[in-house]
Amino acid sequence: KYIELPSECAYTLFVVATFWLTEALPLSVTALLPSLMLPMFGIMPSKKVASAYFKDFHLLLIGVICLATSIEKWNLHKRIALKMVMMVGVNPAWLTLGFMSSTAFLSMWLSNTSTAAMVMPIAEAVVQQIINAEAEVEATQMTYFNGSTNHGLEIDESVNGHEINERKEKTKPVPGYNNDTGKISSKVELEKNSGMGTKYRTKKGHVTCKLMCLCIAYSSTIGGLTTITGTSTNLIFAEYFNTRYPDCRCLNFGSWFTFSFPAALIILLLSWIWLQWLFLGFNFKEMFKCGKTKTVQQKACAEVIKQEYQKLGPIRYQEIVTLVLFIIMALLWFSRDPGFVPGWSALFSEYPGFATDSTVALLIGLLFFLIPAKRLTKTTPTGEIVAFDYSPLITWKEFQSFMPWDIAILVGGGFALADGCEESGLSKWIGNKLSPLGSLPAWLIILISSLMVTSLTEVASNPATITLFLPILSPLAEAIHVNPLYILIPSTLCTSFAFLLPVANPPNAIVFSYGHLKVIDMVKAGLGVNIVGVAVVMLGICTWIVPMFDLYTYPSWAPAMSNETMP
């Protein structure tokens, strides 16, 4: 039964939105307010509100964090990143593409924050090696002309080398899965030894530092678009959509990857071209010239990457097991219900919809606690070494240090708020008020909603933005008789486009803390990437995504609209 005037729920929504946007309280603390306000206003009983704080999403998140914990514990992520960079070569343009590709790939499976924190020290070491190589060339030339060595230059190089080592020691991967919360879970202590203290020998050296920082930040965000588990906004949308439209069953890991991967790939390539043109110029002749002798800088760059890879040693048993489990998880996700052929879920046809992506994640996640990583031995009084126990791939303590409980509570608060809007009738009221928008072309409505979330997500956290907009956009789509996916998919993807400011998301803040960038640099570069992102999403929603979900037809799984709410 609907409340005649859903003003109480609207007030709750207003209070929570204000606190989320201003961050007067921590985001996860604000997310607890619906559990207090909804029962007090008589909108929902406390037991029903509490059930919204733990759903299928949380089980999926637990399984994914088990995988991420093992990957980072055994340094598999670093091996993958360095190997991909070694494959593309050391030409500056290809080098940045290599870093962007490896960063994007890692952020598909790890949090955007952890990926940026892990890759950035490697990129920083490579850039500083290039700068030092230029210094060596200058020193050699000065020795040749003057007949003596420039000792001052050698001292400066040694100082720079010390700064690099100290920076690498102080830069730690950010633990947890706190991507897009607007808060970084541990400080990156770089102010003292950041690029602000670095003397750039040439303008090109400084520009290269800027370019590498932006490549890492933006690619870690773009990679997260590709999978449902890649970023929290995707997970929030998937859980909200499946809860509101349980009869759809069209949105899963495979279907999401099918439509988002082409979009992310195009955005990544166009962003790479944009950043290259903006900072270094785009010389096709230089890039594709074959057989050219490598410069001293390129050789030095290749050497530092090779050395970093060699430090990892041969691939270990733990890395192999983690990689195998990772591949099995991905294959099970893709093959559960691919759509064009029956998936393995058809084996349980008597229980349709019971097994979800979280089932796979939990199954693989449990294996990380069962499979031994190494044996624990002890020496007996007789001097014999015996095994008395084993250590699993990950421990519960390690899992807890990575588990983003703040994200779990934040998402639960969003679900509780959405349930309150539905129970109170606020969603229906908003939909009726927005129904006149049905006179506008569908593409214009999509563009307006995409630009709105893209603008808001620059100053508010990504999860808070998508949580606020989903209960508004869903009734809007139903009111104007448009497939809800037609509006919700582009809005969800655009929520991740926080490229303009250092505070817009954690990856931006991490790279900005190295001191190479100014705010204006990020604004100029980010504006272009934002435009590229929105344009590609609009292109996708009007082309290859349409036949996948039959977006031009109002689906049977969506609520049937009365004539009064039809445009």
From TrEMBL:
Membrane topology per record: Multi-pass membrane protein
- PANTHER family according to UniProt: SOLUTE CARRIER FAMILY 13 MEMBER (PTHR10283), SOLUTE CARRIER FAMILY 13 MEMBER 1 (PTHR10283:SF65)
Q: Which residues are in coiled coils?
A: none
Originating organism: Pan paniscus (Pygmy chimpanzee)
In alphabetical order, the GO MF annotations are: sodium:sulfate symporter activity
Provide GO CC annotations from the record.
plasma membrane
User: What's the domain of life for this entry?
Assistant: Eukaryota
Q: Which CDD domains match?
A: SLC13_permease
Name under which the protein is recorded = Solute carrier family 13 member 1
Q: Name one Pfam family in it.
A: Na_sulph_symp
The similarity comment for this entry is:
Belongs to the SLC13A/DASS transporter (TC 2.A.47) family. NADC subfamily.
**Regions crossing the membrane:** 12-37, 57-76, 88-110, 256-279, 315-334, 354-371, 442-473, 485-504, 525-546
Q: What InterPro entries does the entry give? A: Na/sul_symport_CS, SLC13A/DASS
**Organism taxonomic ancestry:** Eukaryota, Metazoa, Chordata, Craniata, Vertebrata
What subcellular compartments does it reside in?
Membrane
Keywords linked to the UniProt accession: Ion transport, Membrane, Sodium, Sodium transport, Symport, Transmembrane, Transmembrane helix, Transport
